């Protein structure tokens, strides 16, 4: 399954919202009602960390300004109010079909 | 707190075998699933393989013919071997815990990551 993210990069003013799109080449919605997609953030110089799992569930410790939505083939990660610490590269990943595959990443910068 | 630490040579010659070990603390590798993921410089992420129950394995088909993942429960370590390496295998290699599986037993929920180790393939 090919995961395509857009935009490739975006620059956001602190306090403003941001939105990242991820489209999969096949539906990630399984018969149990779950969308098998995670979102990860890789901050500069760090390992990635989990933000969102099963499309819309925030991982432990993730601020509530992050939210995931969408179903089937179209998904969105939204940051309600961007903070300086949110800079980095965001990746979506599908886990419906093996092997799990990642999008190419979206770089978020601060204006 | 779960911690993972990769170790191994940072430079491997073309056609030789890349060998890495991940030492886990704060959890037993008998629990959950334990993966290797790599990231070529400036590029995205690629899942390589995972191991669970200290011996059951799953591989990315694109690398399966060259990869072996194994575990040593006495040392709470798991390892990666990648044979016949080329420059395309140059990457930061991460060891990662994935706590859950998706459909088709695909790995997901990568919740603990090592810091990563850069392996360069060059003569």
What features would you describe in this structure?
Chain A has 111 residues and is an all-beta fold. Chain A is globular, with a radius of gyration of 13 Å. Chain A contains no helices and 11 strands. In chain A, the strands form 2 sheets. In chain A, strands 2, 4, 5, 6, 9, 10 and 11 form a 7-stranded mixed sheet that branches. A 4-stranded antiparallel sheet of chain A has the order 1-3-8-7, with no helix packed on it. Chain B has 123 residues and is mainly β. Helix content of chain B is 0%, strand content 55%. Chain B has no helices and 11 strands. Chain B has strands spanning 3-7, 11-12, 18-25, 33-39, 46-52, 56-59, 67-72, 77-82, 91-101, 107-113, 117-121. In chain B, the strands form 2 sheets. In chain B, strands 2, 4, 5, 6, 9, 10 and 11 form a 7-stranded mixed sheet that branches. Chain B has a 4-stranded antiparallel sheet with strand order 1-3-8-7, with no helix packed on it. In chain B, strand 7 (67-72) and strand 8 (77-82) form a beta hairpin. Chain B is globular, with a radius of gyration of 13 Å. The mean pLDDT of chain B is 96. Chains A and B meet through strand 5, strand 9 and strand 10 of A and strand 9 and strand 10 of B.
